[in-house]
Amino acid sequence: xxxxxxxxxxxxxxxxxxxxxxxxxxxxxxxxxxxxxxxxxxxxxxxxxxxxxxxxxxxxxxxxxxxxxxxxxxxxxxxxxxxxxxxxxxxxxxxxxxxxxxxxxxxxxxxxxxxxxxxxxxxxxxxxxxxxxxxxxxxxxxxxxxxxx
Amino acid sequence: xxxxxxxxxxxxxxxxxxxxxxxxxxxxxxxxxxxxxxxxxxxxxxxxxxxxxxxxxxxxxxxxxxxxxxxxxxxxxxxxxxxxxxxxxxxxxxxxxxxxxxxxxxxxxxxxxxxxxxxxxxxxxxxxxxxxxxxxxxxxxxxxxxxxxxxxxxxxxxxxxxxxxxxxxxxxxxxxxxxxxxxxxxxxxxxxxxxxxxxxxxxxxxxxxxxxxxxxxxxxxxxxxxxxxxxxxxxxxxxxxxxxxxxxxxxxxxxxxxxxxxxxxxxxxxxxxxxxxxxxxxxxxxxxxxxxxxxxxxxxxxxxxxxxxxxxxxxxxxxxxxxxxxxxxxxxxxxxxxxxxxxxxxxxxxxxxxxxxxxxxxxxxxxxxxxxxxxxxxxxxxxxxxxxxxxxxxxxxxxxxxxxxxxxxxxxxxxxxxxxxxxxxxxxxxxxxxxxxxxxxxxxxxxxxxxxxxxxxxxxxxxxxxxxxxxxxxxxxxxxxxxxxxxxxxxxxxxxxxxxxxxxxxxxxxxxxxxxxxxxxxxxxxxxxxxxxxxxxxxxxxxxxxxxxxxxxxxxxxxxxxxxxxxxxxxxxxxxxxxxxxxxxxxxxxxxxxxxxxxxxxxxxxxxxxxxxxxxxxxxxxxxxxxxxxxxxxxxxxxxxxxxxxxxxxxxxxxxxxxxxxxxxxxxxxxxxxxxxxxxxxxxxxxxx
Lengths: 149, 689
What we know:
The complex is a heterodimer of chains A (about 150) and B (about 700).
Chain A: E1 5-13, E2 16-21, E3 25-30, E4 44-50, E5 53-59, H1 60-63, E6 76-80, E7 90-94, E8 96-104, H2 118-121, E9 124-130, E10 133-138, H3 140-148
Parallel strand pairs in A: 2-10, 5-7
Antiparallel strand pairs in A: 1-2, 1-8, 3-6, 4-5, 6-7, 9-10
Chain B: H1 2-29, H2 34-53, H3 57-74, H4 82-101, H5 107-121, H6 131-137, E1 155-163, H7 174-182, E2 185-192, E3 210-217, H8 221-227, E4 235-242, H9 247-250, H10 253-265, H11 287-297, H12 307-334, H13 337-360, E5 362-364, H14 366-382, E6 386-392, E7 397-399, H15 400-421, H16 425-430, E8 436-446, E9 449-456, H17 463-472, H18 484-488, H19 512-521, E10 525-531, E11 535-543, E12 548-556, E13 559-564, E14 568-573, E15 578-582, E16 585-590, E17 593-599, H20 600-605, E18 615-621, E19 624-630, E20 632-640, E21 654-659, E22 665-669, H21 671-688
Parallel strand pairs in B: 6-8, 13-22, 17-19
Antiparallel strand pairs in B: 1-3, 1-4, 2-3, 5-7, 8-9, 9-11, 10-11, 12-13, 12-20, 14-18, 15-16, 16-17, 18-19, 21-22
Helix pairs in contact in B: 1-2, 1-4, 1-14, 2-3, 3-4, 3-5, 12-13, 14-15, 15-19
């Protein structure tokens, strides 16, 4: 069995757990004022200013097509970037940042069963079990390609 | 690591090529100017030297030949003529290619290189069959007889070094001293080893060697003494000046014999031993001499910095400016006089820093214009026209991002002028004009913008012809009367090209409409003016910088939006206008003009409002005016525009966002794109209905 250990940052959104490679994460911001951008896709909440960089923020719940009224007392914005360019910064508004842990990404369960929008299914590399929870691992590069369209 | 240096070399070499090009243009005008020849020679020399150092051997070999020509020109053995200049221009293109390719590997390339070199060598090899050489041969004197004024600056020294046996104790390596000495010029060294004891008594930590160094250098005695500065106490040094001459580098027979004898006898050489070389004739200057001189002249007055670093600096400073504004606000609220004083100090510093860093991102237009000079020169050949490109005000400075966006449009305009504007010489003579056509580029500041006027004295545009074409292309309804400027503005409509046939030079389908939209991208404007048989002038109006704009802060549904002040013609209240609903387009009547308008709240938030207190911004859209209805006007601000990044690129009617003094964000509206978007959406709606 091959092994590839990667650091994963997990977060919670709409009752599910998701994971991102810690390598793509640039900041984790507290909930702050988000300025609305008109005519953007509905899952965009708007932009925030972080050290002079304008970062578009996506409501992760809306992105995966789940809308609940569950309160988000621990909500944070996870800022990611697929490359090191300032223009590639993107924020995910999530219910809660859960944990950072190491996992073998070669042993993912590829049969992800998450009932979400089809175009986004591609962005899920698979799921792994952590702390008795299923964590769906996101391929950020793929996600970036889809969001940019 | 080496790649980094290599890249730097290529960058610098390209600068040198650009400089060469500029110098060549001047040389073409004043072929007698020795300073220019010197400048050209030096640039070539730098390229050659650097090329060899960074593994561009073919480049180095090629440039060497080119350099030889200018060395001859420099020494008055060859006169500058048109052919040499043309050949050099061609060679510069080739040098650019070589810089791009690196060393040649394919046969074809190597053969081409040989051809080029042969072409150049015709100028200085005494080959009678070559036609170019025969012309040049007249002023060219036989090489060896030429005087060499440069060699005089070199002096010869005999340096005797007698280190104490304890020199090695403090870790000094005497060989480094010798290295330092021999790096100063041409040299010969001799070691005297008589004092080294036989092997049985040999102590590795005791030094038994003495040296004598013959050095031919441009540097003076003090420079030589400096080499010994750290071993003054452990070393006895004697420096004697010898008779001048080039014998050290050339090592003629008597010198070799002298050295051999001294080594065999373990006898020091004396200054007197060298008297015999006094009569030796000086020969041609060594390129080495040139190198030393250039190094001595070089003062670091400019620095090469990666443009990304400047961008970062400018970004950080913009951020500082907004932070500082927030700080000042806070200090004022707090009321502590110490804090307020500090905030004021900081404001001053920040302003200075901002000015400096923005200045840094400006580059002079001149440097970028050389390529147009070149273009016009080449075009005059291909088009068989006599063309002159004149630049006025090339020293004005522009934001590098603006210059980048400006190059293609300017190229297009200049091509158009050369191809379609300026007539053939015969035609010009018939019209009583100077057979030589002029393209004038004039740049100057005007308020907070930069104006670049490109004009030619060609045949100008015929409004009747333009109108006819406009009707043919379906851009104008027949029967409509248009003013002259309206007709001229037709050239900016897409799908309008007046060239009768597509030529190689211009008219490849991209027309003035592309120029217009490119300039609009950097918030600039293009204005055309033309007089039949007098010429055409295109005026580019550009902002000084892209990152800071003067904007009008407005509010729509409680959100802040900034509209660039340069786009706004007037602010109207609802009382001043008379609304009318004609078909689908919403419009109002203002001063007898029917103006269509966009309700921003409706477009952005799909919400209709009937508030008569709202305001209308009258904005420019091409040569028309369009109204934008906003809820409220807050005031005028100078703002720093930040892009929204790649994920928001689709929303192009928002050109960016800006941090306001209180930390809130406002969005900057690109009015042209907003109006385009609105029109397209309306068309789509119409189709679906």
